[in-house]
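Sample 3 of the quickstart, ligand pyridoxal-5'-phosphate:
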Amino acid sequence: MDFSKRILKVKPSPTLAVTALANSMKEKGIDIIGFGSGEPDFDTPKPIKDAAIRAIEAGKTKYTPAGGLPDLKKAVADKFMRDNNLEYKLSEITINCGGKHSFFNLMQVMLNEGDEVIIPAPYWVSYPSIVMLGGGEPVIIHTNTENGFKITPKQLEENISAKTKAIVLNSPSNPTGVAYRRNEIEALAEVLKDKELHIISDDIYESIVYDDFEFSNIANVSKNMKKKTIVLNGVSKTYSMTGWRIGYMAGDETIIKKTETLQSQSTSNPTSISQWAAIEAINGDQSVVKEMVKAFARRRKMIVDSLNNIPGCECLNPYGAFYVFPSFKDLFQSDKWKKLSQKYDSEFNSTNFSSYLLEKANVAVVPGVAFGNDDSIRMSFATSDKNIEEGVKRIKKAVEQLG
Ligand code: PLP
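Result:
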């Protein structure tokens, strides 16, 4: 079979290899502690589930407009006003089958062969693949623990070319949990203000922020920036609704309209029942989100403090989301790891380290290379306090055994 050039460019996610290995070990009865999950470990709140049940019983089970129910678009418009002070008409909003689908649709309608999309690393695993599936070229800007995993205005300027179609900003970020403060966003906007490109602001973790962190969006900087920005968001993470598959976007009416044309010829509407549930999630009592964030905040402290107790590990305190991205760079470069490298027949990197942790400590983590950074591993703290305590203890022991 001569497969399409587009699909041949895209590799299966390296995260799947670890997950598959962890699952097969679990099936053999081995006690694995998993830190791989990209979703809150809470149930979807009851009022949201009840809204879905009511929708089924009322027969709201047929096609909706391809771009989503007007009632949901209205809820999203009200949410943008309430939470972000951003005003959008319903024609500037569209509903998709999850945030991943929103980004996919956008790349399909925006890109021509060879167009460039700037992606700061560490990045969410799907961005580069989805850009390539749209025919585009990802342009990766690397960051590290020293610059707090944030790109600088200078780096941004240097990476913009005549082919740049868009830049992706994901704050708070998956996988680092790092987020840009208002002044940092303004500095990036200063670079972008006269450029002919779009900014894709992926705000999917906006509600999961800690301490005094105040979320801000580049679209708030000026009218000009709002015009250039497409905001991407969804209910998956905020309301623990990952399986319901509802994401949304807001921005330039002509772009939004084109994504609806694409959607009308691909998935058609997102599930009608999930859309009614999403209306309840967005319009309903928001205290459920606060409760979830409180639990995440407690676990964040536990995991960051205990990881920083491991020799050779540096873990930044995330401002948001439910991930940490500890760097083991010092350890990877040390002599004592050479022995282990020989066993794996390659240099010591995040993939080998993750395999080592799985075998030695029975702990499943995601190698940082999947996110464009081979010095780190990603650990989700959307898991119980008990798992965090025991899992990090096991990692520490496995690291010390190598010394
Ligand atoms: N954006 C980021 C940064 C994510 O981490 C995810 C999910 O992991 C998504 C978008 C998409 O979420 P979903 O498609 O589940 O709504």
